[in-house]
Design goal:
Shape: elongated
Number of helices: 10
Number of strands: 9
Largest sheet: 9 strands, mixed
Bound molecules: uridine-5'-diphosphate, magnesium ion
Radius of gyration: 25 Å
Strand order of the largest sheet: 7-5-6-4-1-2-3-8-9
Strand content: 15-25%
Order of helices and strands: EHEHEHEHEHEHHEHHHEE
């Protein structure tokens, strides 16, 4: 029988875990034509997520877990899961039931019968989200799709089922700064998009603040596009041209009307403007340099403290 590995990153999910486990085992029970493996990633939780996982693993041998030495973020959790997965198919899923396990049979159908390599989900509404957050999210998707080769779909969730070939392609991308939405789009393959209506988290609370999301989106842009660097050069050219025109105007004016002392306000404007442009461009350079610095260190993306086989 083919095997599906279900990967579930968990950070402080003690409240949602039992509910999630009940639902996923119900769906797995209905799909009796496949074997299952559930891999939970405890991302340095500070609540009872780890004891809960130990309990589940002891009771059900399909349950495996990887527990990190500290919180490394969801991206690291997903990578750890993909590396640990042994299935012919691999699914990524949140622990809070915002990614309905009930969609699994439909996703499985797409990758086995309909010739797709991946079936991914997309939420159709942003209902229940603050309008300002939706506005920035829309802008982000518009911008990043214009400036990168990775096809990044608005509203796409990380919830997806992939064939082994696509998983291996994702694992072959060894970058330290992992922006999964971009990686999924970058590797390509044939993806079927399954829309579903957004559901609220079942228990616990979201780990994403507006600022975290904002920083995450900047990381996505730096990771999947070098256009901001080009913008810096273009800005330089434009400012040079403007400066040239300005010089000609000043020269002609001085020759025609003499050179009365003055012009302090206009000089301040020019200095402040140029200073701003220079700092902006240095900032853009700095963003890329800092990412290059982190990549060059070749630090591990995550560290494991314990798995279902015991403490390491
Ligand atoms: N998560 C994680 N590490 C983190 C933050 C989140 O593993 O540092 C997990 C979390 O437990 C959940 C999933 O990532 O299973 C999505 O997180 P959340 O529900 O908070 O995000 P939202 O659905 O609000 O975007
Ligand atoms: Mg959630």
């Amino acid at each position: 029988m083919p095997k599906i590995s279900i990967i579930v990153p968990c950070y402080n999910e003690e409240a949602a875990l039992p509910l999630f486990y009940r639902e996923i085992t119900r769906v797995a029970g209905e799909m009796d034509y496949v074997d299952f493996e559930f891999i939970f990633i405890d991302d340095g939780s500070k609540d009872n997520t780890l004891p809960e996982l130990r309990r589940l693993a002891a009771a059900d041998k399909r349950v495996r877990f990887v527990s990190f030495s500290r919180n490394f973020g969801k991206e690291a959790g997903m990578l750890a899961g993909l590396e640990a997965a042994t299935g012919d198919f691999v699914a990524l899923m949140d622990a809070d039931l915002q990614d309905p396990p009930a969609l699994l049979p439909e996703l499985y159908q797409a990758v086995t019968k309909e010739g797709y390599d991946c079936a991914a989900t997309r939420r159709t509404t942003r209902e229940g989200e603050p309008p300002i957050r939706s506005f920035f999210a829309r802008m982000f998707y518009k911008i990043i799709n214009k400036i990168s080769d990775a096809d990044i779909v608005d509203g796409a969730r990380d919830y997806r089922l992939m064939r082994r070939s696509m998983v291996d392609a994702i694992l072959s991308m060894r970058e330290y700064n992992r922006f999964s939405k971009g990686i999924f789009g970058w590797v390509g393959f044939r993806t079927k998009w399954v829309p579903f209506v957004n559901v609220e988290r079942i228990a616990g609370e979201t780990k994403w603040s507006f600022w975290k999301l904002f920083r995450y989106s900047l990381e996505g842009i730096v990771a999947f596009s070098t256009v901001p660097l080009a913008i810096a050069s273009v800005l330089g050219v434009i400012v040079c041209l403007a400066a040239f025109v300005f010089v000609v105007v000043v020269l002609v004016k001085t020759l025609a009307f003499g050179d009365p002392v003055g012009g302090w306000p206009s000089m301040m404007c020019v200095i402040l403007f140029l200073g701003g442009v220079q700092l902006l461009c240095i900032g853009i350079l700095g963003q890329y340099l800092s990412k290059t610095y982190l990549e060059a260190k070749r630090r591990p993306v995550y560290l494991v403290r314990e798995t279902e086989e015991g403490v390491k």
